[in-house]
Amino acid sequence: MINQNKLYSLTTADLKLPLHAGRGYPANDVPQLFWPDGTVCWLANMYLLSGYKKGRSRRNNGGTLLTWAKNLSHIIRWCHLNKVDFIDLTDSHFAMFVNSLKIEKDSEDPTQKKRQDTQVATICSTILSFLEFLDKRIVGLNLIGPTSKIRAEKKTFQVVSKSGRRINRSGWVHESIPSARKTRRRQPISTSAVNRLYEANAAMDASPFISRRRYIMLRLLEITGGRRMEVALLTVKDIENATKTGELQLFNAKKPGDTYRVVPVTQADLKEILSFIKHYRHRVIRSTIGLSNDHGSLFIGAESGQPLEINTLTTELYLIRKAAGIEDEEACLHSFRHRFITNVFRNLIKTHHYQNESELRRALLSSETLKLQVMEWTGHSSIESLDHYIHLAFEAESNFQMTLDLLQAKKVVDSLYVILVDYNKRFQSTKSNPDLLRSLKETIAAAASELHVLLSQPELDEE
Asked: How many helices (H) and strands (E) does the chain have?
């Protein structure tokens, strides 16, 4: 019988679906939904299969399809509890269901709601799309619409992209669903908040492995500007390859297909991550799934040795933020991405001493090369999508490679500062540790070597 707390399971790695005669298509990590009594929920699985056929993401243990499955689990559980089938739902039923989502309390803190209005709206959006799917396939059902059993209306509305382009979107609207709050652009996480997160992690009561994994997670978020999926999908091989090139390859979660981007990283940071792999990750793999079964994912579970789910990174940051007592600003995974992009442009401003935004705009006319390079680092799909950050910085007419070298040198110094603060805390909390001292020496040597190369520029010939 399926676990009542989780109404889905993922297909195995060897599963193939015969979508066309004579050919099997890989169908690993496709969620399968069940009723709470363990029987298969066929109608919901038909909806997930339609998403699979459309090529919806299954990356990182289910991807978009897993999100759909989790959202549908709510209506499956409610219908089972109230002995109502999907095709028999009425407007009153749906209103009662939405209300149950809104009033449910957090099990750890009964004084707080379990989910915000935006989460309720997101769950309901998936469910209404599922009910529309059923309505189109069962003749005469008349399940959803302005005058149907569930009185909902499909509306088209406009959203404005980061580039300022207006995009038409459509979605179902029902009077019981809370209105989504006006979206606001997240701000970069501050240096003060980042330092508090590092300090809180060092002071938290956690195993050495968990503590180091959290530190590496924070560091990668800060130095790569990676989205949570991109960081979650990093592998040991990615880190090893980066030590040879000085650039870390990340999967680009916002572009179709298997597309990647590269971000320059310091050897000091890479040494720290390799140290985590060698002294912490390696031991967990050996004691859980065994070295011969190592899948290569960088972030793994302490007890299972399996790759971490994306949501686990979100939970980890929530726990660190709570321990740090950060309430005066938003400290989420994506705010690290805004910090990374902002710092790229801020460093350019400092390098070229731009005085105002007008000067930056004029500089854009001659900065196409660097702009394309920044697009590569950040994973943006168009130049226009970077306009939000224009007021912070941009490179103009000086030597392109020298600019990049100076920025990379500053990153080395910044990285080394964070690493030394962390080592200081680790030395204070442990007894004499030769491995820790050896690791620190290797990190400092890597940083010194990298700085020597970056700052040893040939002197200009005098005229």
From this structure: 16, 10
Report the alpha-carbon distance of residue 156 to residue 227 in Å, rounded.
29
With 60 as the cut, is the pLDDT of residue 241 above it?
A: yes
What residue type is assigned to position 129 of the chain? S
Residue 269, both tokens: 């940071």
pLDDT on residue 160: 54
Enumerate residues 6+ apart whose C-beta is below 8 A from 278.
none
CA dihedral (197, 203, 205, 209) positive or negative: positive
What SS3 class is residue 4?
coil
3 CB neighbour count, 10 Å cutoff: 11
The residue type found at 18 is: P
DSSP for 275-327, written as a single string = HHIIIIIHHHHHHTT-GGG---BSSB-TTT-SBPPHHHHHHHHHHHHHHHT--
What is the pLDDT confidence band of residue 112, given thresholds at 50, 70 and 90? confident
For domain 191-455, say whether CATH 3.40.50.300 is its number: no
The long-range contacts involving 179-182, CB below 8 angstroms and separated by at least 24 positions, are: 179/117, 179/121, 180/117, 180/118, 180/121, 181/117, 181/118
Give me the residue spans of the domains in the chain.
8-152, 191-455
Say how far apart CA 141 and CA 18 lie, in whole Å. Answer: 29
Please report the DSSP string for 391-405 in residue order: GG----SS-HHHHHH
- Exposed/middle/buried for residue 165 (C-beta within 10 Å: 0-12, 13-18, 19+): exposed
Q: What mean pLDDT is predicted for residues 290-296?
A: 95
Q: b/e map of 58-78 (b: 16 or more CB within 10 Å)?
A: bbbbbbebbbbbbbbbbbbbb
What SS3 class is residue 34?
strand
In 393-419, which positions are buried (b, 16+ CB within 10 angstroms) versus exposed (e)?
bbbbeeeeeebbbbbbbebbebbbebb
Element (H, E) at 198: helix 191-203
Whether 152 contacts 145, CB under 8 Å: yes
Q: Pairing between strand 247-251 and 260-264?
A: antiparallel
Q: What pLDDT score was predicted for residue 319? A: 94
pLDDT surpasses 70 at 372: no
Residues 314 and 326: their CA atoms lie apart, in Å, by 15
Give the separation between CA 93 and CA 79, rounded to whole angstroms.
9
Report d(CA 242, CA 236) in Å as an integer: 10
Kindly give the pairing relationship between strand 144-145 and strand 150-151.
parallel
